[in-house]
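Hi, here's the filled form for the chain we discussed.

Project: internal
Contact: R.S.
Residues: 448
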Amino acid sequence: MRRRTLLAWTAAAAARVAGANERVRLGVIGCGARGRYVTRWMREAGAEVVAAADVYLPNAERLRRESGGATAVYQDFRRLLDRTDIDAVLVATPDHWHAGAAVAACAAGKHVYVEKPFAYSIREGRAIVQAARRWRRIVQPGTQHRSAEHFQQCAAMVREGRIGRVHFVRAWNCVNMTPHGIGPAEPGEPPAGLDWDMYCGPAPLAPFDRKRFLGTYRWFWDYSGGYITDFGTHRFDTVHQVMGVDAPFTVTASGGRFVLQQGKDAGQMPDVLVVTYEYPGFILQYECLLVNGLGLGLRSPDMRYYNARGPFDRPNGMAFYGTEGTLLADRVGFEIIPELQPQINAAEIAAPRFRTEARHAGARDATPEHARAFLDAVRGLRPPPVDAEAGQRATTVAHLGNISLRTGLKLRWDARREDFENQPEASRWLARTPRTGWEWATGEAAFR
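And the returned structure, exactly as it came back:
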């Protein structure tokens, strides 16, 4: 754990009376499906939901009902942060509000669990890290795979040389959204209870379109970076964990919209995206398909599987190719396939003795463990499993892929400076110019 994160955790431990049964008073900012899901596990782990805020009041009201009815409701999260009876907040807004809410929460003395992706842009993510350090708050990214025991086992096996030397890694996210993606635009009037102006916040004030709202917002550049920032961030964080790295030094992306048609699909993201990252000592290739859901690295028959595509699919995952074997891993579990020797008959490849036993994860999703870990950190019982800096580094990898795609450049990345090497056309994508009057909402203004 980085020293500054340990200092923040130590400060939190000193400020509170540690105890496994101590209730953490929680505020929730962003009460959509993911916000309600994480809140459920926070409550299971002993959090008391004191207040909820959402620009769409029906979302906040639904969370209030699900939390027992005693929760105060706000449309502007700043009113929630004004309260002095809140210890920590969950930030589960659309991506373009993560930094504004997280920085303001730290400034208000609250600890923060911020959903992935860590921030809308690289500069906004850095603002969150700076806020955690300035106000000595715990900021735990919602990259819950850090709390999954089987990924910790994967990291240990690679470190111990179980699959030999690893110089090539693949990561992928695959889903079939053909033929029409999220469907056509749905313009109209904002529904009752929605503050559309604040929803847009630092983004351009676009005419209301239901597809830019709720679960489909992430297919628009104004609010998100698409699948690579949403799900790819999990892959990159695990690659960093397993390989013991935190940044590539070159990035090359290619892709486009080959199947999903503008007009029939209101979304703006590529339906095929391939990004190659150079790290010290190995190459990472990330592949994102919206046109086929099978994925890579077919699992063995005794491996638990995702229900969507049948018994051999692996639509999201990673493969670590070592000189002595291949480690295949996803949130369901992992398996190692030993490297075959040249003298082995090809007909024997399917024999069980050439595969290690598949290891199943304890749960399909590690969010319950991750939520409990955050509350334990706030209580001062243990350090958080992942810190703000790690969240920033993993999400930066996703942003770099998008920047390479949108500029058409092979990027040369200086991780220490968080900038490109003499590529001003790429540097322009490190942050966006916020809408006039909403400069505060990117979180960056607090550090100028």
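Let me know if anything looks off before we file it.
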